[in-house]
Write a structure and sequence with these properties.
By secondary structure, the protein is an alpha/beta fold. The protein has one domain. It is built from 2 helices and 5 strands. A 3-stranded parallel beta sheet has the order 1-2-5, covered by helices on one side. The chain has a two-stranded antiparallel sheet with strand order 3-4. It is flat.
Length: about 100
Amino acid sequence: MALSLAEETGTFKLTGPRKAAFISGIQRTVEAASAIVLTRGFDVGEAKAIGQAVGDAQYVIQDNEEPLTGITLLGITSWAAVRNRGQLINQYDEFGVNKVVK
């Protein structure tokens, strides 16, 4: 199961007991459903609160000597928001020849 939460940018504002209840609800829901959490990937608004909830509730399980995290969180953002995205582009073709002409 995937749990996707999205808000209009800048509209998510919770503080105090409401924020604590939101975080607790996210934690309980994700753990009960073994869900993968999807957010917009920004460190603001609902995505920040969800990241905090997952981080606080994260646990590690052992599987054949491999540590595995118990909660999966994917932050998917727009390509334009990625800093230094040029470093992520493959500059070589399938033969190892540099495709970028300088």
